[in-house]
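Memo to structure team: turn this sequence into structure tokens by end of day. - J.P.
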Amino acid sequence: MTDVNEVQDTRVVVRPRKVSIAAWVGATAVLVLFVVVAVVLRSSDTGVRFRAADQVSLVILGVLIAAGLLLLARPRVIADAEGIEVRNVLFNRRFPWALVRRVAFPDGASWARLDLPDDEYIAMLAIQAVDGARAVDAIRKVRALHAASKGA
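Reply from structure team:
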């Protein structure tokens, strides 16, 4: 469910809820698994000699995979009276409301999007369909800010 962390007079902050939980659980499980495997490899007789460097490498690999999974918990949307900032997995982008044609959540889509001029759009991974009612609440608040900026 989408976590609408802040709602002030003219500010809305949205983060995905279910995907964030799944990312943290998955990252923790992967890290624990890699650490356990690294410890067990040294003490079990597999016919191959595993050294301390191999164990450290496995733990580092587990950390890297866990960090990659945690990137899924990174998306965020911050909307205020001036515009909207969209942070997806890797990049942040800020758009003034004058540039945004529509805040859309197409039927069957997994997440909301901003429709921009010249048939371009930006996905808002923070507002996801799997979050149900929280996503509906978030999209309504973002649309209200967009409509208020067009009316001003």
